[in-house]
Amino acid sequence: MQNQPDKSLETFENPQPGRDYTIRIRVPEFTCLCPKTGQPDFAEMTIEYVADRLCVELKSLKMYIWSYRDEGAFHEAVTNRILDDLVAAVQPRFMRITADFNVRGGIYTTVAAEHRQEDWQIPVPVRLP
To answer: How many angstroms separate the CA atoms of 110 and 102, rounded?
Structure first.
């Protein structure tokens, strides 16, 4: 059983590739280091995506997220890097990552980054009476 941080992301086949559905993953314990002070930064990340052919395997995602614990990174850079890595692994129709960082120096930071396939259109929601 793997018990060390790892930058590789495993995937599995989407069980319903013909349907647009949302996968929402909450990561309440993301940590990295401030590149200026070396002190830890804490965030809750939300990963939302509409899979195409592949889904991300959660154990590998856990090890991937853990790999940032000892790395210095600006909030904006780390959020966008995680999005880029997940998009490269999963090739989703749509993906959004929202990173809500805890207060640092009296300032809260939220970074949201998105990817969408060029030809993908968001489905119109059905509103029931």
So the answer is: 9
DSSP-derived 3-state class of residue 73: coil
Among 31, 45, 24, residue whose Cα is nearest residue 98: 45
* DSSP designation for 6: -
Tokens 């002190």 identify what position?
39
Query: To which residue do tokens 């793997």 refer?
Result: 2
Based on the residue annotation, tell me whether 55 is a catalytic residue of this protein: no
Q: What is the pLDDT of residues 22-57, one digit of tens each?
A: 999 999 999 999 999 999 999 999 999 999 999 999
**What pLDDT score does 2 carry?**
63
Take residue 129 and report the two structure tokens written for it.
């009476």
Q: Does residue 34 carry a catalytic annotation?
A: yes
Question: Which one of 6, 20, 32, 34 is the catalytic residue?
Answer: 34
Separation of alpha carbons 75 and 34, rounded Å: 9
Residues in the chain predicted with pLDDT less than 50, given as ranges, are none
